[in-house]
Structure formats: C-alpha cells, structure tokens
Amino acid sequence: MSHCGFCCNGGLWKMQLTKAFREKRAVTSVLSSLLLTIVAVAAMSLATAATYVITTNMRESMSERLVVEDVWFNKHTGTIDIYLSNTGKVAVHVSNVYVNHSAQVFNTPFQLALSSSSWLHVNASWNTGDLYYIDVVTSRGMHIASYYKTP
Questions:
Q1: 144: exposed, middle or buried (Cβ count in 10 Å: 0-12, 13-18, 19+)
Q2: Quick one: average pLDDT of 72-92?
Q3: 114 and 41: one domain?
Q4: Are residues 114 and 143 in the same domain?
Q5: Which end of the chain is more exposed for a tag (fewer CB within 10 A), N or C?
Q6: Above pLDDT 90, what percent of the chain?
C-alpha cells in the first residue's frame, strides 16, 4: 500500500507548515526593525538640520554689534544724523528707524561692512529743547534705542 504523505506523515506536514509560518514571522521582525531604524535615522536627520538652522541664525544675531557713537540734530538740513559703527562679526543692514515710535525715512539702503562706520541721515522734524526716543532696527531684529535731547 502506498502512502500519500499527507495522511500518514501528518507530523512532517505540520512541521513544514510551522517552519513556513516561523520564517514569515522572522521576515516581519526584520522588516519592522529595518523600518524602525529608517524612522529613527530620518527623525535624527530632521532634528540635526533644525538645530543647525537655529544655531546659525542665533550665531549671526549674536555676532551683530552696532554702536551709536553720536547723534546730531542738524539745523541746516533739518535731519537727525546718527553716526553708527559696526563692531560685530557680520555685516549690518539697517531696515528701520523710529523716532518717538514713528517710522522715519532715511538714506537707504544703509549697510555697514565689518569694522566700518558711517552717518545715517534720518528725515525727521524736531524742535529745540525736546526729548526724542530714537530706535535703529537691523534686518536681523536688533534694536539700538535711547533718548536724546535736542540742543
């Protein structure tokens, strides 16, 4: 009598089936580990890139140093002349000037290279003996502000 292998060797058939299921679980385990590794590497790459961008912006902002050396209320031109010096490690671009919290027109574009100084001429009306709050703002958001009294 001949045996078909399915009915008499049921143990062998079950072992082969169990082995096949076990192999699939091993593949699933490897794939899930690989996927987890890819996600972790992507997350760390994103975190590294974000940290680089943030620290670069902070380094530039912290390296920006602008000093108001002198302020003149010019009677002949009717302007407020501000002498600025760049003592930082990056070039400076003045984006706005406020006099008593009102935006004013000035000689634009006003940029200062490293270790340079120049006059900033602000077209603002002023009266003798008055106190003025002057705020110079750079493109990176740095404010240099103080009160000045006209002669």
A1: middle
A2: 93
A3: no
A4: yes
A5: N
A6: 56
